[in-house]
User: Which sequence fits this backbone?
């Protein structure tokens, strides 16, 4: 450790906040983004980029790893970056470390899991505008995401200060498909597929090491599992920070693909935003593991919206279709890991559905006058056992 270890002195924040990272006006909650990803896919490379580049955002990064990995990782990041100071705050907790970086970011490597690490970080509230939480490779982001969203216990505590912004999954363009392939070996759905399913943004990294054809194939696989998350193709996780943070994935109406088959890409420097909107034909990954169901929902009456709410509740809470007994087919039990929806009422009102595992909410969305009222709604379910019976049962909600 360096000689110049000091108790951290964190500078009072006086500058204006970046527009897209403004905290919720009502609650002043700090947005939190979860980074998960395949082993060796480039999570640390992304973090290093964020911690060392001049992007104007003050981001606190928590490396939530076990053992010494986080410590060695953060020191490695610091040594390679032009950090002004290295501060270690012991506070009687030997596992706590805070590093203040030259670009205003704060790196925390805390060998505690989840909540404790964040509680410690929040003691330094005001020193950052956004929190990034890196999970261990192949950790399922679902339980962590739900911890920060709609957890009553959490809402009474830290949840007053933190709002879940989104989940980013970094996928290895070279080994990603192989990892997905190996993942189905277990009798339950593998972690890599859970990560893809639970992501709000997919970073398809290391595209320089794969042929354009295989990158396209991998993007297609990702799209098959998660049809709504944007896919950014990157080399060394090079992407504008503003495109990853401040996405309000759990608050805003989800950006659904248009109903017609469509595929285009935008170049943004090194990264490419991929909109391969139509899910490809089911692959063996989907048949063995997770698949998605994307349904167009017609304009609904209030009563139909209530019926839809009940349908979602039954499926998410009881894992069976309304009116049907719980499935005894152990191979493909009905289970929803993530759902999103936008519903339009005949009154013109719009409602947004957001769900993680068994937790969900349907709330009225502020209509954007510039966009007008959409002529139909959409619902996407990502999980297992999402077969034709599920679509039929769902459509029965409005066809009667
Ligand atoms: N060629 C190439 N190498 C990359 C790219 N992104 C990351 N790497 C390298 O791949 C290796 C693994 O990257 P990391 O960022 O450590 O991956 P990680 O996801 O943090 O790894 P774990 O935490 O061990 O799961 C490192 O040697 C990186 O320099 C890329 O886009 N192209």
Assistant:
């Amino acid at each position: 450790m360096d000689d110049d270890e000091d108790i951290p002195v964190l500078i009072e924040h006086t500058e204006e906040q970046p527009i897209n990272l403004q905290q919720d006006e009502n609650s002043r909650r700090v947005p939190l983004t979860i980074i998960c990803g395949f082993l060796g896919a480039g999570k640390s490379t992304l973090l290093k980029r964020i911690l060392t580049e001049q992007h104007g955002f003050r981001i606190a990064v928590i490396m939530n790893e076990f053992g010494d990995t986080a410590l060695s990782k953060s020191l490695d990041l610091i040594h390679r970056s032009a950090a002004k100071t290295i501060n270690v705050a012991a506070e009687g907790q030997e596992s706590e470390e805070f590093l203040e970086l030259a670009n205003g970011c704060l790196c925390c490597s805390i060998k505690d899991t989840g909540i404790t690490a964040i509680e410690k970080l929040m003691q330094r509230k005001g020193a950052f505008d956004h929190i990034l939480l890196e999970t261990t490779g192949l950790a399922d982001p679902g339980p962590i995401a739900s911890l920060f969203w709609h957890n009553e216990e959490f809402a009474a505590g830290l949840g007053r200060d933190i709002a879940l912004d989104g989940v980013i999954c970094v996928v290895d363009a070279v080994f990603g498909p192989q990892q997905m392939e190996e993942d189905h070996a277990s009798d339950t759905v593998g972690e890599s597929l859970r990560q893809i399913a639970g992501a709000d943004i997919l970073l398809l990294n290391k595209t320089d090491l794969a042929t354009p054809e295989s990158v396209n194939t991998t993007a297609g696989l990702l799209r098959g599992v998660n049809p709504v998350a944007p896919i950014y193709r990157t080399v060394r996780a090079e992407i504008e920070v503003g495109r990853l943070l401040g996405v309000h994935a759990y608050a805003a109406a989800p950006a659904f693909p248009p109903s017609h088959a469509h595929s285009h890409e935008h170049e943004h420097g090194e990264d490419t935003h991929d909109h391969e909107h139509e899910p490809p034909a089911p692959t063996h990954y989907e048949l063995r593991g997770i698949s998605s169901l994307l349904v167009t929902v017609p304009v609904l009456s209030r009563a139909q919206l209530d019926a839809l709410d009940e349908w979602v509740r039954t499926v998410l809470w009881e894992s069976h279709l309304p009116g049907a007994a719980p499935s005894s087919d152990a191979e493909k039990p009905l289970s929803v890991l993530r759902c999103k929806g936008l519903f339009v009422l005949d009154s013109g009102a719009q409602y947004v559905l957001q769900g993680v595992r068994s937790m969900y909410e349907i709330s009225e969305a502020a209509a954007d006058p510039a966009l007008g009222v959409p002529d139909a709604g959409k619902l996407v379910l990502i999980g297992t056992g999402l077969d034709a019976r599920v679509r039929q049962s769902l459509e029965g909600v409005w066809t009667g």
